[in-house]
Amino acid sequence: MADLGSLEKALDYRFSDQELLNRALTHRSYRRSNNERLEYLGDSILGFVIAETLFHQFPRASEGDLTKMRARLVRGSTLAVLSRDLDVQSFLLLGEGEKKSGGFDRDSILADALEAIFGAIYLDGGFRAARTVVLNLYANQLRDIKPVDLKDNKTRLQEILQKSDKELPIYEVISQSGKPHNLVFEVSCKIDHTDSPFIAKGTSRRNAEQEAAGRAFEAFVGNVPVA
Questions:
Q1: Is 115 an active-site residue?
Q2: Given 98, 107, 115, 209, the catalytic residue
Q3: Residue 199: exposed, middle, or buried by beta-carbon count in 10 A (0-12, 13-18, 19+)?
Q4: Which residue segment(s) compose the domain that 165 sits in?
Q5: Which residue ranges of the chain lie beneath pLDDT 70?
Q6: Residue 107 annotated in active site
Q7: In terms of domains, do 29 and 47 share one?
Q8: pTM above 0.85, yes or no
Q9: What are the E-state strand segments in 109-221?
Q10: Looking at the structure, do residues 48 and 142 belong to the same domain, yes or no?
Q11: At which of 118, 147, 176 does a domain end?
């Protein structure tokens, strides 16, 4: 296992009790004392911090818009991206079965571990410390999110393709792996002006398609003028 000090540096938080961080990185497949309870706690902390921040950041937004923005920010795919940015996958403790099935790179495991880390920071340093870490990690997402951007990725991609007189995207499941209770889907999204499809993984076919559509949308907007 890698030196936890480098993860603490990435989090910009030093644990008084490193066993809390160690537990936050321990998957249930590794041992009975794992990160599930910390994940439960961290999920609640994350939800509150993001909800409070959005409440003050968008004083005119409706309850519905605030709820949608919070859902986008705390969803598993967003957490998994942040987790990879911290290189959490290098510190995970997984059972042999999870290792062999690619658990280190599974969105659900990475997302759960990051929530567990938030819970561990709360227990170690209190709410203010946990809030600071969450807001630091989410700085870019909170800066960029807007109520008007709340259409899902597949809808945004379809609309921009239709405006450009392009064919609608084609989604295909490339592979399905993992145990029945913890499946991982790999999906491709093909649009007619590109040579290669956009590939993404998710814990459901829908999530994988949304992630692939998001990548296709970003590439399309980056290469085609949008009126």
A1: yes
A2: 115
A3: middle
A4: 153-223
A5: 1-2, 102-103, 148-151, 222-227
A6: no
A7: yes
A8: no
A9: 170-177, 184-190, 198-202
A10: yes
A11: 147
SS3 52: helix
Q: If DSSP codes are grouped into helix, strand and coil, which group holds residue 35? A: coil
Q: What's 93's domain CATH number?
A: 1.10.1520.10
Mean pLDDT of the chain: 88
Q: Which residue has the tokens 């495991």?
A: 109
Cα 48 from Cα 219, distance rounded (Å): 33
Is residue 143 located within the same domain as residue 33?
yes
Amino acid type, 60: R
Q: Give pLDDT, residue 185.
A: 92
56 CB burial (10 A radius; 0-12, 13-18, 19+): exposed
Q: Is 26 helix (H, G, I), strand (E, B) or coil?
A: strand
Same domain as 124, residue 38: yes
What pLDDT shows up at residue 42? 97
Count structural domains, the chain: 2
Yes or no: say if 225 and 206 are a contact pair by the CB < 8 Å rule: no
The pair of three-digit structure tokens given for residue 23, joined into one six-digit string:
């537990």
| Amino acid 54: pLDDT | 96
Q: Which of 117, 147, 177 is the last residue of a domain?
A: 147
Of 43, 98, 107, 211, which one is the catalytic site residue? 43
**CATH code (residue 215):** 3.30.160.20
Coil/strand/helix, residue 191: coil
